[in-house]
């Protein structure tokens, strides 16, 4: 996906010094987080790191966990589980929506079938030949 195709919050716009200033986290710590897989800034063609607003929010979460005494391996696991949970919640919402649509379609189909059956039961205007 090209940088232009990303949502605005995911576009890398800040260099490492600006991100350091915004987050209060030293550049060498940002590099450490990247090496540990906690953060994956985009890169320019020249290899310069570009951080996004999403990266800034992720750094805020990492800082919260560090302040609680969680080590980097634990932070990686927590972030992974939080991301997975968010994806599962999204998938569940989609499935509930799909299920509701299927139920509504089935209800319409059974209503249409019942209407046709009811017309046949009334003889459709024909006289009874046995009568």
TrEMBL record:
Residues of the signal sequence?
Answer: none
Span of domain HTH merR-type? 13-81
User: Under which name does UniProt file this protein?
Assistant: HTH merR-type domain-containing protein
Q: Which organism is it from?
A: Mycobacterium noviomagense
Disordered: where is this region? Answer: 92-131
Positions with biased composition (Basic and acidic residues): 121-131
Enumerate the SUPFAM superfamilies for this protein: Putative DNA-binding domain
A molecular function (GO) term: DNA binding
Name the keywords, alphabetized: DNA-binding
């Amino acid at each position: 996906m090209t940088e232009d195709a990303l949502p605005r919050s995911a576009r890398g716009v800040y260099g490492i010094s600006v991100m350091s200033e915004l987050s209060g986290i030293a550049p060498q710590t940002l590099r450490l987080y990247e090496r540990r897989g906690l953060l994956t800034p985009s890169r320019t063609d020249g290899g310069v790191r570009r951080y996004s607003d999403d990266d800034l929010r992720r750094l805020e979460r990492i800082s919260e966990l560090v302040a609680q005494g969680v080590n980097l391996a634990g932070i990686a696991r927590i972030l992974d589980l939080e991301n997975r949970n968010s994806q599962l919640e999204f998938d569940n919402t989609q499935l509930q929506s799909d299920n509701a649509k299927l139920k509504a379609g089935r209800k319409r189909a059974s209503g249409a079938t019942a209407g046709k059956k009811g017309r046949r039961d009334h003889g459709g205007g024909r006289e009874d030949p046995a009568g």
